[in-house]
From TrEMBL:
InterPro entries: ARM-type_fold, Initiation_fac_eIF4g_MI. Gene3D superfamilies: 1.25.40.180. Residues 4-66 form the MI domain. This is MI domain-containing protein. Pfam families: MA3. Signal peptide: none annotated.
Length: 105
């Protein structure tokens, strides 16, 4: 559903700059996944805009790569190799994002 990916986008965008917020959102995403309230496709779509802006965000929030990984793990998107590759390809520094996801994959 369209509104699911918009909510995911908003939550990820708001939590990317703060570790405790990222952890809170990750726990929420984990709960949503366990109850099957949002599809993996909607989660993936919700991360796209932040993944595209990640290099810029990292200038002001140097831990942005680590924080997006925290939230990706909460959404269980790290379990899907194709999704990991697709999201990391949105960032100019895709190698760094993939390296952070690899131990989980």
């Amino acid at each position: 559903m369209f509104h699911h990916c918009c909510l995911v986008d908003k939550l990820v965008s708001m939590a990317i700059e703060n570790k405790s917020d990222a952890q809170l959102v990750a726990r929420l995403f984990n709960r949503v996944v366990s109850r099957r309230l949002c599809s993996p496709a909607s989660f993936g779509e919700g991360f796209v805009s932040v993944a595209q802006a990640l290099d810029y965000i990292a200038i002001y929030a140097p831990q942005a790569f680590e924080r997006i990984v925290i939230m990706l793990k909460g959404a269980h998107l790290y379990e899907d190799d194709e999704c990991c590759k697709r999201l990391s390809s949105k960032s100019r520094n895709s190698g760094m994002l993939l390296l952070l996801l690899v131990p989980s994959c």
